[in-house]
Amino acid sequence: MMVSDPVRLMQKWAVYHSYVSANTFLRYHTFETNIEAFLSKMKEVDEPEYALTVLAGAYVVAPYVRPTTVHFYIKQREKAKIWVESLDPRPVETGGNISIVLPYDEGVFYGASEVNGLNVVSKVQLFIDLFNYPARGEEAAEAILRELNKQWSRRGDT
Q: What is the pTM of this model?
């Protein structure tokens, strides 16, 4: 079955989704200020069950907005220890520049793919997560939507 207007469907879904209130965040701070260097460190972590999202995910897929934070989903809270030991961030109560995200639903991993050696949620999930995300999320969501439209045009889905 083909959706007649996938963009409208995604926008309706995104309006009702709040990335910030739907998920649980484990917040950390890293002193690494170079996003590319930090993402390279992530590639070396021996834990394949993760997926970048919001601005860091968008940066990997469609580099329109340069992120100052890195958010990534993990499947199990216990796996956070692997990330903390490997990346050596410092825990913080609020703020921080790394958020290990415990998803409201494992469906966020549906359609995730590897892009340049990093796991990223699907472009649809990126759009949904970014749509109401503060700090330039709407701009990044529009960049992802342009990428999705290109993808759908190539496949003849629109």
A: 0.88
Question: Are the C-beta atoms of 97 and 29 separated by less than 8 Å?
Answer: yes
Q: What is the pLDDT of residues 52-99, one digit of tens each?
A: 999 999 999 988 888 999 999 999 999 999 999 999 999 999 889 999
* 66 close to 38: Cβ distance less than 8 angstroms: no
CA neighbor of 38 nearest in space, from 76, 74, 88, 4: 88
d(CA 87, CA 21): 26
**How far is Cα 127 from Cα 140, in angstroms, rounded to an integer?**
8
Q: Provide the residue type at 144 as one letter.
A: I
Domain at 61, CATH number: 3.30.460
CA 15 remoteness from chain centre? 17
Give how many domains the chain has, as a whole number. Answer: 1
Q: Residue 87 belongs to what domain range? A: 6-152
